[in-house]
Design brief:
With 172 residues, the protein is α/β, with parallel strands linked by helices. The protein has 7 helices and 6 strands, in the order E-H-H-E-E-H-E-H-E-H-E-H-H. 35% of the residues lie in helices and 15% in strands.
């Protein structure tokens, strides 16, 4: 890294409790994968979770910090080099609008998880990477940011069609 440039990974669970995601990013495996990809800082927004991540990384070169809530996480997203997010549509689309690389981690504990369908559809379109808590390290190691296709906001029809199909409404 030329000139000691900081590359921050911002993790958000939104207003939910998603301890499985916080535990996954706190694991030595994920921290090592982030370091190998050249990231220097890990900032975790842990929401209503009870698991408190360690501020110590196995390697002193990854700076780790965490907080529960903030009035706005937009600044954290704007300054991040990579965002790792729960599958909430607000967090997904805010990150994509900012043009930030995104890994969406699906919470498999949620019932009727429509969020996973949205995340998987956007991953198929190459706008983001999709993972589960147990596959996050592998996803980070395998990801190639050059394969991502920028999300162009404006045409909501494909997303509306997907949501309508999921909800059982007629699709044009």
């Amino acid at each position: 890294m030329a000139g000691g440039e900081r590359r921050t990974v911002f993790v958000t669970v939104g207003t939910t409790c998603f301890d499985a995601l916080v535990m996954a990013v706190d694991s030595p495996e994920v921290k090592k994968a982030l370091l190998q990809k050249g990231y220097t800082d890990l900032l975790i927004q842990m929401g209503r979770g009870t698991y408190v991540p360690s501020k110590v990384s196995g390697d002193a070169t990854l700076q780790v910090d965490h907080f529960t809530f903030s009035p706005s996480i937009a600044d954290n997203m704007r300054t991040a080099s990579l965002v790792i997010s729960h599958a909430g549509s607000g967090s997904i689309f805010e990150t994509l609008r900012l043009g930030k690389p995104l890994i969406v981690v699906v919470n498999e504990d949620l019932m009727d998880n429509h969020q996973s369908e949205l995340a998987e559809e956007l991953a198929e379109r190459k706008h983001l990477f999709c993972a589960r808590p147990q596959t996050l390290g592998e996803t980070i190691r395998a990801m190639d940011l050059g394969t991502l296709v920028p999300y162009v906001p404006g045409d909501a029809k494909p997303v509306v069609t997907l949501i309508n199909k999921f909800l059982g409404f007629p699709v044009d």
